[in-house]
Amino acid sequence: MISLSDKEFADFKKTSPAEDLIDLVALMPWWAGVLLAIYTCLGSGDLGLARVVCGRTRRDCRRSAPAPDPFTLCRVAREAAARHLLVDFHGAYKPTGLYRTWPNVVTSEGVLGLEQSKWGPAASPDNAVTFPFMRMLAGPVDYTPGAMLNATKADFRPVFNRPMSQGTRAHQLSMYGVFESPLQMLADSPSNYRKEPDSLAFLYNQRNGRLWPPFFELVPENIGSDEPLAWQLAQDGAWFEASPATGTTPAAFRIVPTAFDTSALGTYTGAVTVTVVDPPGTAGSPQTTSLRLDVVDRPVFYTFVPLVRR
Q: 261: closest CA among 242, 243, 238?
C-alpha cells in the first residue's frame, strides 16, 4: 500500500484545503488523455492528489469511444493511476467492476441524480429511497446530494438557473450516509450554505501554520420584504473579533480569529448573536451562530490508494 498523505497533502497547494483536490474536467474520455498529458508536462504528476472528472460516456461498450485509438475508460483509469489521480466517472454508466482493477476509480454516476431537478420532477424522494436497492448493487454512486432550496411535491418547480429539490434538508443530509460513494460533494451554491449557518468552524493546522478559513463573512437579510433592518452584534468569546458591531441590511459583518494559542492543541468555542433593533419586535430576531476553532497537529486529509502495477 502507498499513502498519498505521505506527500503532505497540505503542502500540495498553498491556498486553501478546498483547492488541494483539483479537478481535471473532461467532457469526453479521450479529452481526459489530453488533460493527463498536460498535468504531467506541468510537473504536477508527483505533487500530490487530484481528481479526473470524466463524463458523457453513454453506454458501456467499445462503441462509446472513437476509432482508431480510443481513450477508453479503462485507459483513463490506468493513466490516472500512474499519476496518483482519483477518477470520478460522472456522467458515465454504472460501475462494471473497473474499480476492482483500478481502485483509484472511486465513484461513478450512472443514476438519475439530483441534477435532474433542473428540468423535471423525476429526482423525487421516491426515487431516492428506491435506487439504493438496485443501482448500488453495481457499486458506488455519484448522486451529488446537498440541495439547500427545498420544496414539497406540490410546490416544486423545475428552474434551471436556480434549481430546488423535493423533500427536506434532513432528507438531503441522509443521502450522505445512505448513498455509497467514497467521494461526495455539496451540489448547491456555496452561498446557499453560508447564508444560514447554525455553527461555523475554523481549523488551525500546526503542520503548515494555516488557518482555514481565515475569516467568515455573514450577511443579515430581511427575507420577508425589501425593507432595511438595523441590527447590532454581540459576541461571546475573546479569541475572535466580530465587526462591525452595528449595521443595516444588506451590510455584512466579518468574524476573524485573532487571539488563540497556535502552539497548544485545543478547542475554542464561542458565539455571535445578531439582534434587529429597528423595527423592534422583528420576527426571527435574535439569531445566534455558534463558533468553534480547533488547533490540530496532523494532516487534515488522508487518502489511501493501493499501489497498482501494470
A: 238
User: In this structure, what CATH number is given to the domain that contains residue 78?
Assistant: 3.20.20.70
**228 and 183 both lie in a single domain:** no
User: b/e map of 27-55 (b: 16 or more CB within 10 Å)?
Assistant: ebbbbbbebbeebeeeebeebbbbbbbbb
Among residues 62, 20, 41, 55, the alpha carbon closest in space to that of 301 is found at 20
Evaluate if residue 135 carries a pLDDT over 80.
yes
Q: How far apart are CA 252 and CA 65, in angstroms?
A: 51
Q: pTM, whole model, 2 decimals?
A: 0.59
Q: At which of 157, 192, 227 does a domain end?
A: 192
CATH at residue 263: 2.60.40.10
Q: Is 59 helix (H, G, I), strand (E, B) or coil?
A: coil
User: Which has the higher per-residue pLDDT, 149 or 24?
Assistant: 149
Q: What is the pLDDT of residues 193-234, one digit of tens each?
A: 766 667 899 999 998 888 989 999 988 888 777 889 999 999
Q: What percent of the chain has pLDDT over 70?
A: 72
Q: What type of residue sits at position 164?
A: M
| Domain with 253 in it | 197-296
Phi, psi of 89 (to 5 degrees): -85, 75
Residue 134 lies in a domain: yes
Query: How many domains does the chain contain in total?
Result: 2
The x, y and z cell numbers of residue 146, run together, are 446537498
